[in-house]
Amino acid sequence: MRTCIASCSVASLLLLQCANAAFAGSGRPSSSSCFVKQGRTSQTVVRAGTAESATEAFTPPDARSAVPGIHETEVQPSRNPIGPNSSVLVVGGTRGIGLEFVRQCAQRGASVAATHRDGSIPEALLQLIKACEDDNIGAVSGLQMDVADESSIQNAAMELKSREDFKPLTHIIHSAGTYLKGTTFDGSSRGGRPPAPPVTKDIMMDTLLINAVGPLMVAQSFVPIMGSSPEATDDQLPILAVLTSKVGSIHDNGSGGTYAYRASKSALNNICKSLSVDLMGEISVVLIHPGYVRTDMTGGNGLIDVDESVSGMLRAVESTDRTVGFRFVDYKAELIPW
């Protein structure tokens, strides 16, 4: 089985080693029974053939930044807040980062549809749906969709629109993605990285399908059913927020390798730039990077917890409106170089 992970940050090895030792094992409980922290989990969202795929904040252990340090930070006033009149689609909302997006959006009172790849709703999402019903907070539902299957995406959009309680989507948060094993040029040690399986054509194509083509197909099917909430101002356009990765930054690539994942995230960034141009005046588009998050997939290592990452990314989402241009920003409000 291919182990798959996505949405990763890039930092120097020394920084990660020190930070991991300092922060591993910490966590913070949430204050609401509907929003009890689920622990350090990954987010399984799609499969390509028999290859399990997931989204999760993860840093390849050999990834190093070519431009370490603090980047320019943007001011993030709440220009376009998520609230009771918001209708949110979280693509890949079954656990980990995606589930936390569902939880925090519901906590704001929004109606949230969370996609899941398999036919039945996963237990973690079911528990959240029930908890939100019990607490009378938000309205959460599941939506079956495979981001690697164009017909599945189209059917999901039609199914969502046909629901009796459907409201035009004010937000799409695309959290789904994949990281497949097979990252090196030829399997040998290069660029200071240890030996690892080489990248293959299948790994390249599967990764590009899920990480780059999938979000475009989702936009094509779901943007037509987006719309501003009734009380929105002219500047408060619907928002398409896509989780990408600092690994997709060409300027920041200081360690090489990770061919499929890097290429897919760079492609995703360019696709979203084109979407921001083509949909200008209709939809606001923002690329967000979650940071290096403590999860099961990272063995509990990382710099932040899932709730902190998602809180930061939602600040970036809520600071987005017509007056803010397309940008690539992380959970700390730092602008990432292309």
TrEMBL record:
Under Gene Ontology molecular function, one entry of this record is: oxidoreductase activity, acting on the CH-OH group of donors, NAD or NADP as acceptor
Q: Which PANTHER family match?
A: SHORT CHAIN DEHYDROGENASE, SHORT-CHAIN DEHYDROGENASE/REDUCTASE SDR
Q: Which organism is it from?
A: Odontella aurita
A Pfam family recorded for this sequence: adh_short
The keyword GTP-binding belongs to this UniProt entry's keyword annotation: no
Q: What is this protein called?
A: Short-chain dehydrogenase/reductase SDR
What UniProt keywords apply to this chain's record, in alphabetical order?
Answer: Signal
Signal peptide range in chain numbering:
1-21
The protein's matches in Gene3D superfamilies, at most eight in alphabetical order, are given as: NAD(P)-binding Rossmann-like Domain (3.40.50.720)
